[in-house]
Design brief:
- The complex is a heterodimer.
- Chain A has 4 domains: 3-68, no CATH class; 141-327, no CATH class; 344-521 and 749-878, no CATH class; 540-731, no CATH class.
- Chain A is built from 27 helices and 24 strands.
- In chain A, a hairpin with a 4-residue loop joins strand 1 (131-138) and strand 2 (143-146).
- Chain A is globular, with a radius of gyration of 37 Å.
- Chain B is mainly alpha-helical.
- Chain B has one domain (5-99): Orthogonal Bundle (Arc Repressor Mutant, subunit A), CATH 1.10.10.10.
- Chain B has helices at residues 5-15, 21-28, 32-44, 55-60, 73-85, 88-99, and strands at residues 48-52, 67-71.
- Chain B has a two-stranded antiparallel sheet.
- The longest helix of chain B has 13 residues, at 32-44.
- Chain B is globular.
- In chain B, 34% of the residues are buried.
- The chains are: A alpha+beta, B mainly alpha.
- The A-B interface holds A 25-26, 28-34, 36-37, 41, 55-62, 65-66, 69-70 and B 20-22, 25, 31-37, 40, 44, 63-67, 101.
Chain lengths: 880, 107
């Protein structure tokens, strides 16, 4: 027993069983004879043994060759060209199948390119998997992701050992001006000087911030984002070193960031375009209030769990050290990428699943087409089998044809995907994180390719297996009806049932989204948006440093607005309602009630208002009064509360005359003079929260939105508003003038987008399923012509016959609907977070969709039923 | 069929009376993983026929029986074509022959 003999033994297991013993015999015999010859010449030394072993290694490729050819590879070319010929011969079938697949693959690829760009592609930062976001966790209020206070950020940074670095980022908006250029308002990021080294980003030109930039007094430097550099500076290569006025302050441009490094933020109203370092001072160390986003880089070797543990410990210490500020607060560490896409992740995945379902339905339809066509080809295949083609060969022939179909479909689908992708991008840019680049890269191409192969197997394999199980004799008989055997019809039925089920799941999902959207758009925002125009204004720079200047500006601007003849009333409010998804809030106390325990303080949204805001916006005054001219900086401090606050704090009492205290830079106390109706200030889907309205004259604020109501319900013209404001300060940038109805509509943008895509998929699914059902029932009728003829000859009426056919279609539809309802109930839990005031298992939606599907199924079966009822029994039986 | 250089070598080896797999490897210098698939292909294409020597003979000589390959008429024609196309093979195989022991056939 030598090594070479063993080698051959092992290799022989690769040889197909039929040929194995002969193959082994030949190899063993050759080795035996070779040895003997060498021995006879006395040359059988170890070197020859090695040579023999080397030679026996060749047994492996030999065995593999025997295994693969001629079974798999041989004749593949012939199969291909034959397949092409067959597809050319039935152009109608080919066209329909290819189009179905191209649409399915194209749509799936387009959505996948979004999935890829947003969810899969690593962030354009160094070692992005080690980047995390650190949030404060208000565990008593169940808010796991709260912005961070500088008090805690600075202490975390000193104490935490899990991170290589930890940086802060505050998105905001700033007025930008330089030279004689048009002033504009852009998103700005105030960042700790080390943010870019934390992210691992270096500048495309110039430099990023250095620690020196974070020293108080050095912070008058900015970095430009790639977009702003190209847009506003025409990609000027010499931009570094120039100065720029940001909110009226001269700043030096020290660098330009590479493209793709963008963080977007709702606060800032889009992707941040300009960056300015924060200089942390002792004031920050002791500051109350929370407003920062914190990003950190884990040290290598430190796991997320360890970092989380450490942060929890540190936060617990801080909770003890300053219970006043930190009671009820802990900290959370989450990986950065999912955090950045958290808002859109659910919607993208639901859409991806939906488009996948559409593709499956398309596959099932193509599968049914193939089965139908197989009947026409039964004779051809039987002839091949009778002439000795093995089942494998026939199976391969059929699979090659599916592969061809899917290949052509895939190529066309890719072209369609590019078109879909462009269409998609034009409707959803604002919805996606700025870093996401949605293109057709190699991963998307690989996806499309595997998609095509997978679909071809999906729609090709079952029919091929079914068809290749041939009965040799029956179809060759003269006059054989070439009918579908029972199992084939059963397979078609299964496919169409699955199609209907998938369509039900999709439509139920769409239905739920429609209901949710409907209830969302019927939400009363608490004010009347029709007829309102809003202008966002940010007073910045030396001119408006004093409170007096800020108060005076808004008073004058509002007075000027009143002079516009088409304008009925105007007011101003900090944070445009429903404008950005954000606002300010803080905790407050009331003097006539005991304080709640630490960590459960009363909190309220805080808004500054000026002019006749409540009446201008149509916010009802429920009790007391609104603000008046007499509420001046030096008069008694007053505050207006909303209904929710009044009812929570003083149930059954009048809040008028009570005292409210809060900290806003300094401690302030004011008397409640009025109660107004609830307004959804932040988001339509968020129930109104307790709100404190302060007069801007007593609590000055530099950024406000002027809101003006036109006469006769027509919103005042933007140009009029601009002109009025320009008479007060011609240098103020007024980039954002919008009608309130648009603002409200835009706040519904994302649900609307998801909804319209889902509706599209739902309708396509319904159509495809209906066509599929029609195809199956019609086919079954065509196969049963003689049977039906016989029935009629024996006395069945035409309505009996159509009922027979309808019942068949209905049976399939019911099975599909039942299956689909189960699927929809299962899928519902993934939808929960996307629904507003609709139960994910909403029975009404289920019933309506089920009824819709059954109705469509009846229509789809009606056509073949009618054809069946018109069968002439005489003709049907005579064709024999 | 497509006439590759290895094919031509094998045809020449067969024409020169090397009838067993390992012998053909020796004279052509081609690895075993190439020779057998090639022989099988030639067999399928009708250029080579193979048979097993009679078990009785082998048993008498107390050795395993060997498989024996030879050119068919079509194979001879193909061999002529191969010689025309690859002049060197005659010389190559000739040289190999001198170096090695003469082919022995035990059919």
């Amino acid at each position: 027993m030598s090594l070479s003999w063993l080698m051959v033994r092992i290799a022989s297991w690769l040889v197909p069983r039929r040929e194995r013993s002969e193959w082994r015999l030949e190899w063993e015999s050759e080795i035996w004879h070779y040895r003997r010859e060498l021995a006879s010449e006395d040359r059988l030394d170890w070197r020859m043994e090695m040579k023999l072993l080397g030679r026996s290694l060749g047994a492996v490729p030999d065995a593999l060759d025997l295994r693969s050819s001629p079974r798999l590879g041989e004749g593949l070319g012939a199969d291909l060209s034959y397949g092409l010929r067959m597809l050319r011969k039935s152009p109608g079938f080919t066209l329909v199948a290819v189009l179905l697949l191209a649409l399915g693959i194209g749509a799936t690829t387009a959505i996948f390119s979004v999935v890829n760009g947003v969810l899969l592609k690593p962030l354009p930062f160094q070692d992005p998997e080690r980047l995390v976001m650190v949030w404060e966790n208000s565990y008593k209020r169940d808010r796991a992701r709260n912005v961070v206070g500088p008090y805690n950020f600075l202490r975390w940074r000193e104490r935490a050992r899990s991170f290589a670095s930890m940086s802060a980022f505050v998105p905001w908006a700033a007025n930008l001006a330089e030279g004689e250029g048009e002033p504009e308002r852009v998103a700005i990021g105030y960042v700790s000087a080390d943010l870019f080294s934390t992210l691992g980003v270096s500048a495309a030109r110039g430099r990023v911030f250095t620690p020196e930039d974070g020293i108080p007094g050095n912070e008058r430097v900015v970095l430009l984002g790639d977009g702003l550099w190209k847009r506003r500076f025409g990609a000027d290569p010499d931009v570094v070193g120039r100065t720029l006025r940001v909110d009226g302050t001269e700043m030096t441009i020290v660098g330009v960031l590479p493209p793709g490094v963008e963080l977007s933020s709702q606060q800032a109203g889009g992707s941040v375009q300009i960056w300015n370092p924060m200089a942390f001072t002792n004031e920050h160390r002791e500051a109350r209030g929370r407003y920062m986003l914190v990003m950190a880089r884990l040290l290598s070797g430190v796991t997320l769990e360890q970092a989380q543990e450490e942060m929890k410990r540190i936060a617990a210490d801080l909770e003890k050290e300053n219970a006043d500020f930190n009671a009820g607060w802990s900290a959370n560490v989450f990986p950065l990428q999912p955090e950045l896409v958290r808002d859109v992740r659910g919607a993208i995945l639901v859409l991806f699943a939906a488009v996948g379902a559409v593709l499956l339905i398309a596959c099932a339809n193509v599968g049914n087409l193939l089965l139908t066509r197989a009947v026409a080809r039964e004779r051809e295949l039987s002839v091949r089998a009778a002439l000795g083609a093995r089942r494998f060969r026939i199976l391969r022939q059929l699979l090659v044809e599916s592969l061809l179909l899917a290949g052509v479909g895939g190529v066309l689908g890719l072209a369609l995907a590019e078109a879909f992708r462009r269409a998609l991008l034009s409707i959803l840019p604002a919805e996606l994180p700025a870093f996401a680049t949605i293109g057709l890269d190699s991963r998307v191409l690989a996806f499309t390719f595997s998609m095509s192969v997978a679909t071809s197997l999906l729609f090709g394999l079952l029919p091929a297996l079914q068809v290749s199980r041939l009965d040799l004799v029956e179809p060759l008989k003269e006059g054989a009806r070439g009918g579908a055997s029972a199992p084939r019809q059963r397979l078609k039925n299964v496919l169409v049932t699955v199609e209907i089920a998938l369509a039900v799941v999709l439509l139920v999902t769409t239905g739920l989204l429609i209901r949710s959207f409907h209830s969302l758009s019927r939400v009363n925002p608490g004010f009347q948006p029709a007829g309102l125009t809003a202008v966002q204004i940010n007073l910045a720079g030396p001119r408006y440093e004093t409170n007096e200047a800020q108060i005076a500006f808004y008073q004058q601007a509002l007075a000027k607005l009143q002079e516009i003849p088409t304008l009925e009333r105007a007011g101003a409010i900090s944070w445009l309602p429903l404008g950005s998804g954000l606002g300010s809030a803080t905790s407050y106390r009331v003097t006539d009630k005991p304080d709640p325990p630490p960590g459960e303080e009363r909190t309220a949204d805080v808004r500054m208002v000026a002019g006749d805001l409540f009446r201008a916006m149509g916010i009802p005054l429920l009790e007391g009064r609104g603000f008046e001219e007499s509420d001046r900086p030096d008069s008694r401090a007053v505050v207006v509360v909303n209904q929710t606050l009044a009812e929570t704090v003083w149930p059954g009492e009048s809040p008028i005359g009570k005292i409210v205290e809060m900290s806003w830079g300094e401690d302030i106390a004011a008397e409640v003079v009025g109660v107004v109706g609830d307004v959804r200030l932040v988001r339509l889907e968020t129930a109104p929260r307790a709100t404190l309205y302060w007069p801007q004259s007593q609590l000055p604020n530099n950024f406000m939105s002027l809101i003006a109501r036109g006469k006769d319900g027509r919103p005042p013209a933007a140009a009029d508003l601009r002109a009025a404001v320009a008479t007060v300060d011609p240098e103020l940038p007024l980039t954002s003038v919008q009608e309130m109805e648009d603002v409200v509509a835009r706040s519904l943008g994302r649900p609307r987008l998801t909804l319209s895509l889902m509706s599209l998929f739902g309708v396509v699914a319904l159509l495809l399923a209906a066509i599929g059902l029609y195809g199956v029932v019609a086919f079954s009728v065509s196969q049963r012509v003689r049977e039906i003829g016989l029935r009629m000859a024996l006395g069945a009426s035409s309505s009996d016959v159509s009922r027979l056919v309808l019942r068949e279609g209905l049976k399939l539809a019911l099975a599909g609907v039942a299956l689909g309802v189960v699927g929809a109930l299962f899928a519902a839990r993934f939808l929960e977070s996307m629904l507003y005031e609709v139960e994910p298992r909403d029975p009404m939606t289920l019933v309506v969709i089920a009824a819709l599907l059954i109705g469509v199924a009846l229509v789809a079966s009606y056509l073949p039923a009618r054809r069946a009822s018109r069968i002439d029994p005489f003709l049907a039986l005579r064709t024999e | 069929m497509n006439l590759t250089y290895p094919t031509a070598l094998v045809l020449e080896a067969l024409a020169r009376g090397h009838h067993h797999g390992f012998q053909i490897m020796d004279v052509t210098g081609l690895p075993s993983g190439t020779i057998y698939p090639l022989l099988r292909r030639l067999d399928r294409e009708g250029l080579v026929s193979s048979r097993w020597e009679k078990p009785a003979v082998a048993r008498r000589e107390q050795r395993p029986s060997r498989r024996y390959y030879q050119l068919t008429a079509a194979g001879e024609a193909q061999h002529a074509l191969a010689l025309e196309r690859f002049h060197a093979i005659e010389i190559l195989i000739g040289a190999a022959r001198k170096k090695l022991r003469p082919a022995r056939s035990e059919a």
